[in-house]
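Summary for the steering committee. One of the milestones for this cycle was to obtain a three-dimensional model of the protein with 2-oxoglutaric acid bound, which we needed before selecting residues for the alanine scan. The sequence and ligand used are listed below.
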Amino acid sequence: MGKTLTDEQIEFYRREGYLYPLEGITPERANELLGALDDFEKEQGVSAGVFKLKGHLCFPEAWDFVREKAILDVAEDLIGPNILAFGSRFWIKPSGDGSFVSWHQDSAYFGCDPHEMVTCWVALTEANEGNGCLRAMPKSHLQGGYEHLESYENAPGDAPGEKKNMLGRGQAIQNMDESKAIHMELKPGQFSIHDERTAHGSFPNNSGKVRIGYSFFLIPTHVKSALERRPATLVRGVDEYGYWDTDPVPTKERLPEIIKTMLEHNAQYTNPAFKQDA
Ligand SMILES: O=C(O)CCC(=O)C(=O)O
């Protein structure tokens, strides 16, 4: 028995590669974060959703949210008590614009060694089959690294009719057996968790309302960066390894510099010449 999860839940996660719906965050709390997300966009003239890797550096509410006890208790049961948030992202999927997420493994691009990262995806609005909730492919985490085809069809907001893959490189695993996919439907405040090797993706949202989730990428402190040295945020326990630099605490004064750095990261992440690591 873990701190929060039952033996059955832990066993299910290890066997299937995902777990949902998980509880412990109120819909009101999820709504507060939505409000802060909206304020950020009004104040900065840019949506926090454009930053592919460091949503928690955008505003204090996002910085605090990656420390949500309910989520870290679940993560601790799976990866142990010393936890770094190496990244996070707001997934804002408007209705009717065609945005989707192709089948992919987080492990193919995040450069974590060993592959022990877990991704928590928190529903800030309801997420269901009709509005393109996250889908997971059971047991795919046991298959090792899949090949990803990089199409660069990754331009939400680009010319009408273009494909709108929300992933930086439009990376996609081909020929997944769609009939086996699980739709991880969630109510606001509920969350799912998946292994970094679990193939996942989502369909466009045609519900008439925006669908928003906040995901964060958590690693035990003994995981190294297989790319260059990078920053992360300690969210629980102690870091006895020091493999990662420290993310800057987001403050109003630092924000322009943080936004500039996040945009540079985005450019790197979407640049074919820049090495990613599986
Ligand atoms: O929100 C989505 O539709 C996709 C999310 C995703 O790929 C992730 O959190 O790793």
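Key point for the committee: The chain has a mean pLDDT of 91.
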